[in-house]
Every structure is written in structure tokens, then in C-alpha cells.
Amino acid sequence: MTDAPAVLPPKGDPKTLYLIDISSYVFRAYHALPPLSNSRGEPTHAVSGVTFMLLKLIAEHAPAYVVVAHDAPGPSFRKELYPAYKATRPVPPPDLSQQMVRVKEVVTAWGLHPCEIAGFEADDIIATITRQAREAGLNVVIVSADKDLLQLVTDGVVMYDTMRDKVFGRAETIERMGVPPEQVRDLLALMGDSSDNVPGVKGVGEKTAGKLLEEHGSLDGIYAAIDDIKAKALKQKLIDHRADAYLSRDVVSLRFDVDMPLRLDAARYDGGDALALRKLFTELEFTRLLTQMDPVPSVSGHYQLIFEEADLEPLGTAIRQANQLSIHSLVARDDARRGELLGVALTATEGVAAYIPVARLGHAGVDAKALETFLRPLLANSLLPKIGDVKREHLVWGTRGLVLRGERFDSTIASYLLDPGRHSHTLADIARAELDAELISLESVLGKGKGKVAIED
């Protein structure tokens, strides 16, 4: 009778914890994707790949609990056991290390509960939390492709290789490794692991190791029956490399006792901090990811359209009382110097704003001369602080003979000072980067293609 194929728990299962081996994701993304960077030259392809993989995992499985395990900086206890552990691995390239920092920022903002413990590897964190989760009655899905973690597969625990969409239970572990999960550790001790520079028994490969374990049950069982092994060459290899076999077993054994008590409430997935996540995606210029996020709630406020000259006076009074003026002019073809003035937006208090369209043939609004008469003293008042794209407003109103004084804050200059490498410093880009807000796009108002209307209409 064969074991039934392993399957994942149902989507959104409230009793399942997902444990993510983030290094597995990072290395796959780094090596699989072409180099990519944002406009400031910061490498981003590994971060992008990992983020999309996490997004897919969350969307498809809606985990109730999530922990992301990281390798802590510095050596682990395995280096003390065996100084040559992982000694053959090349030093990670600088751009990979740089992106790993960003990955941690994304994981934290996403509320995926990153965890790293000095002196231990991510695998030990996963082993310890798996034990604690099972004791608490949770099922566990280990998200990784690392064969070492197959040691943990048991009732209520599976490993999930998302890249191959493969779930590993007992039968799948036997299919991949040739032995059941409880013998994976001893298999690795016998055959070694070149990627981690674990010696094993020289000359003993996976098939031979698997056959020995099938016959004797464990590494201890093999050495207890060493005199009964008929193959002289194999017997001598086992005798000569006994110390290496047991050292290797110590090195590949996962730790279940890392001092890191699992707090289920802390590991519950709540969607994270959308504001922090949008800010990160904006910095990294992950435009596609930003469009997939839930829209930012609109800001409530009082917004007034002024069509009558009589309504300008109370607006002027409010501006003088607030002692500040934010201004944004709308001109045809967005040409500040030569475009026809279509209207002006003014605000003195957050959440309270007015738009004054200019009256034109077939369009209601305030007479252009009356609007200029209203704005002239406000704009010329050097004691009334002005806020906006000040250079642009100088061009708009200077062309019409009005003087702008009292410039207090220029949004485009501030944007440049904050981030000189930013691709664009338009109000829409600044709002997205600094306020996590989406301005209504002109395209959504005007349409596009053959049905597009001119902004003045």
C-alpha cells in the first residue's frame, strides 16, 4: 500500500502556518531573472522576483499564519562544529546582499513576520517553529525546495516547492531522496553534501547510502552491524570515514531547540502595513505591483466649484484667515507660458479646496478679468505664504501681468531635494511617493484614443 499524494491544506485554513525559507526565493529570483534596477541605479530584480512569488503565494493560499525565516549574519554553530562548512561557496555578490536587505524590508512591511536568530540558520528556525506549531495543533507548510528540510516532513507537515508546484509528503520524499523523512538526516551524513562542503563517507553515493539505510535502519544501525557488511571495499570506506559520517550527521541535523517561543497571535497574517508597502514599491519603482494593490482610500473633505464672482469674496477671506495659499493653475496643453487659462484650484486649509473655472464660450465660470482682479492682491502679498509648483505658477501668472510673491514651499524643488534620482517630480508622482495617494489622472477624465476630448472641453 502506497502513501496518498501529499496536498496542501485548503485555502485560508485557520489552523495552518506557512513557514517560508526566504533564501530559497531570493537565490532563485537572483539567478533566474535578468538584471534590473530602478532609476537611481539600485539593483531590484531579485527583490521584484521574490515579491511577485510572495504575492502569488498569499493570493492563492491566504495563509492564516506566516513566518519568514532568514539566515542571520555571521557564522552559525555549524561553523564551530566543522570550520570547513560551506567553505567552498563563493562570496555573495554585493548586489545580492544589497537586495537581501530590501527583501527584509518588504517582508516586514507585508506583515510576514521575519525571523532570524544569531548563531543559527533559517533551517533551524523552521525546525523549531515547526515543532512548536505542531504542539499547538497547527498544520505546517514549509515553503522551500531545500532537501535538508525534508527531515521535517511528517503528519501535518509538508514541504511546498512553489516553483515546481510540488508538495512533498512522505511518499514524495521517498521518491526524491530514496528514503523516508526520518532517514534523510542519516542519508546526508553518509553521502555528504558538496554544496555545503559536508564530507560524508568518501565514495558512498546516494544509492549506496539509501541501500545501507534500507538494510540497517540508521547510521547507528549501520555501524552496529559493520562486521556483517559483505562488500569489503564499502566496509573499509565506512570504517575509514566513521568520524566523518558522525561529524556530517551533527552538521546536517536540524535544531529543534532554538530559543524562540512561538506566539501564535504575533504570527497571524493581517495584510501588513499597506502604507509602508506602497512606499517601498514606489522607491523600488515596482509600478506593476502598485497597480495590483488595493486603492488608497480617498481623503474626505469639502471641495467647492465656484461659478459666480460673488462667491470669490468669502474664499478670499478664508485664505487670509488661514494665512497661507496653495495654488495650482490649469492651462490648455499644460503650457504654462502660452496655454489658455482654463481655471485655478486654491486651498488654504487641508481638506477644504475650491476650483474656479474660467468662463468661455459655451462653458460656465468666472470671468477671466474678475478672477485676475480677485487673485492679484493675494498673489502679490509677500506676507501670505504660497505653496505649490512655484516656478510654474510664476510663468502662468507672470504672462498675464500678475506678480507672485511670498513663495514659501515649492513641491518640485522639495521632491528633487528628497530624491534627485526620482524619474519625475510632477504632483501625481510626489503624491504617490510621499503621501501614498493617487491623484485622479487626466486620462481618466479626458479619455483616450478617438474618444479623447480636449482638456478645455
Structure write-up:
The protein is an alpha/beta fold. It is built from 20 helices and 12 strands. The protein has helices spanning 22-32, 45-61, 77-81, 94-109, 122-135, 170-177, 181-191, 206-216, 219-224, 232-240, 242-252, 264-267, 274-284, 287-292, 312-322, 368-380, 390-398, 411-418, 427-435, 442-446; strands spanning 16-21, 65-69, 114-115, 139-143, 157-161, 166-168, 302-305, 325-331, 341-349, 352-357, 386-388, 407-410. Strands 3-2-1-4-5-6 form a 6-stranded mixed beta sheet. Helix 1 crosses helix 2 (45-61). 32% of the residues are buried. The model has no long low-confidence stretch (mean pLDDT 91).
Topology at a glance:
Blueprint (H helix, E strand, L loop, with lengths): L15 E6 H11 L12 H17 L3 E5 L7 H5 L12 H16 L4 E2 L6 H14 L3 E5 L13 E5 L4 E3 L1 H8 L3 H11 L14 H11 L2 H6 L7 H9 L1 H11 L11 H4 L6 H11 L2 H6 L9 E4 L6 H11 L2 E7 L9 E9 L2 E6 L10 H13 L5 E3 L1 H9 L8 E4 H8 L8 H9 L6 H5 L11
Parallel strand pairs: 1-2, 1-4, 2-3, 4-5, 7-10, 8-11, 11-12
Antiparallel strand pairs: 5-6, 8-9, 9-10
